[in-house]
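REVIEWER CHECKLIST
Item 1: Sequence provided? yes
Item 2: Single chain? yes
Item 3: Sequence as submitted:
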Amino acid sequence: MRSQKAESGRNEQLLRVLTILREMHRLEGVDLYELAERHGTDIRTIRRDLDALEAAGIPMEKERDGKRMKWRVAYKEKLSSVASLLDVSHYLALKLAVGQGGAVTKASGIYAGLEDLGDKIEKAVGSAGRKKLEAIEKYFYSYEKFPYRESAKEYFWPLLDAMAENRVCRVIYRPPRPKPVDVSHEILPLRMFQHDRAVYLICQFMSHGSVGTLNLQRLRDLKVLDRKVQPPKDFDPAKYEASAFGIHPSDKEATYVLRFHKAVAPYIRERVWHPSQELRDLRGGGVELTFTCGESHEVTSWVAGWGNSVEVLKPASLMTELAELGRWLVGEYDRRS
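Item 4: Structure as written out by the authors:
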């Protein structure tokens, strides 16, 4: 009878410690009194539980919040151990594995999912196979890995957690201005994507309800709040993607019709430039590209980059912009020659 009680006590302690560990993944941390009240025990017991977690190798940090001390998992140390997953080869492998296996979606948190996935990969390919997977990294140019490697890792994973749980975040953001001034926003993170060697976050701004984008490299601080909010009902990720040529969506929609010379036609045919695109082969080997999205300087700069290998048929606004650019180039560089 005594052994049964002891076993029951050990099970209760194990369950409590594991629950505390999950709670401490919150970026703002938890205090001892909160944990004691939540688990129906005293402060000394909670301290012993935290000591047990530290003894097990879980890195933790403390920070004073007013009169109370808050404890949390040390994200920077935790993230350093999985930093290699942010290299492009591992990141894409994870996306593929999640899409096929579904193990991560069944787990209770991002970290648990990653550990579970790591175990499955280890069992499936063995240690030798895993070394081969890790060696793949050297076959990628460095600039392909920079977006994930250089994005602030202490923000990357907490944002994924927040997205999974629909949690509001408070961020400090530094806009790209000649004299930047940090601004504070409360946001609901919705999606993350890579573009032009940077990682961007699509989010809803809670102050006015609109949806926009933030560059992760411009974040200066992040706090995941307890408040949960459902994503806006009218937010359609596919529609949002189609409304922009690159990063910035626009309410002013335009249909672009561009004819490319045969010398560059193979490059145009082999890529998807926009989800709505249609291609039509032309006599002589050229190709006509048609797509519809919001008007923006991103389309203008992309078309201008093709030089005399492209002809604009629509819209008239793009023709006007390119004509103005041409006049400026002639005036600027004629003076210098």
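Item 5: Key structural point noted by reviewer: Residues 172 and 206 are 14 Å apart (CA to CA).
Item 6: Recommendation: ____
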